[in-house]
Amino acid sequence: QSALTQPPSASGSPGQSVTISCTGTSSDVGAYNYVSWYQQHPGKAPKLMIYEVSQRPSGVPDRFAGSKSGNTASLTVSGLQAEDEADYYCSSFAGSNDFVIFGGGTKLTVL
Amino acid sequence: QVQLQESGPGLVEPSETLSLTCSVSGGSINNYYWSWIRQSPGKGLEWIGFIHFTGRTKYSPSLGSRVTISVDTSKNQFSLTLNSMTAADTAVYYCARVLCPSGSYYCSAFDYWGQGSLVTVSS
Question: Which residue among A94, A99, B14, B24 sits deepest, i.e. has the most Cβ atoms within 10 Å of its Cβ?
């Protein structure tokens, strides 16, 4: 299975909204509602922000929202804050053989 | 609060075997799936495999027979063994818990992570 495709970078000013895409295939993103998003600050472990396309774990601000259309999932960060600057990775269940695959990551810059 | 901590050598020689252990505290290893995930320097994340507390395992096809994951419920730990190490295996290795909410079927999100253990393959 190939990795999911994410844009290498995204940016926005404080208070604005930014959307990061994650494109897969009909065998992963398009087939299952099991897309997750992770935030990773430099030198830190990834943090789960969204699971099952649009579910937020306890403690994750509602500024973070996930969605999916066809083979593409999206993460929208509203009301950008300086601390949102980080790398964001998507993942998807990819069937019983591959289990889970990740995207290449998107570096979000808050201008 | 569940906490995970990886332990093991930071340096492995080429062709040798890597052994890492993940200690789970603040919660029981029982009733969950647990995973190993790695991240090569400056690169993305790669799933290595998972283990259920009962011992059921699933490994990444790309790593095939090189990887073994085991669990010791009496110690609240699970471990990773990766043999025939090469420079391409140099990475930060993370252990993580698989999130599986009630009613979910293809549980594949990771809600608790260790801090990561940098493993360098070099002679």
Answer: A94
Two structure tokens written together for B42? 């400056």
* CA angle A31–B36–A71, rounded 5-degree value: 15
Contact A100, A2 (CB under 8 A): no
Pairwise CA distance, residues B58 & B48, whole Å: 9
CB A48 within 8 A of CB A41: no
d(CA A9, CA B81): 35
Q: Which two tokens stand for residue B70?
A: 């085991």
CB B9, CB B117: distance < 8 Å: no
Q: How big is the CA angle at A99 (ends B31 and A88), to the nearest 5 degrees?
A: 95
Q: Do A46 and B115 touch (CB under 8 A)?
A: no
Which residues make Cβ contacts (< 8 Å) with residue B77, sequence separation at least 6?
B21, B22, B23, B24, B29, B71
CB contact B45 to A (< 8 Å): yes
Give the pLDDT means over successive 10-residue stretches in chain A (111 positions).
89 97 96 96 97 96 97 98 98 88 96 93
Q: Check if the beta carbon of residue A87 is closer than 8 Å to that of residue A107.
A: yes
Tell me what pLDDT residue A1 has: 58
CB contact under 8 A, B45 and A36: no
Residue ranges for chain B with pLDDT beneath 50: none
Residue of B1, B45, B99 to mutate when probing chain A, most A C-beta within 10 A: B45
- Residue A96: the pLDDT is 82
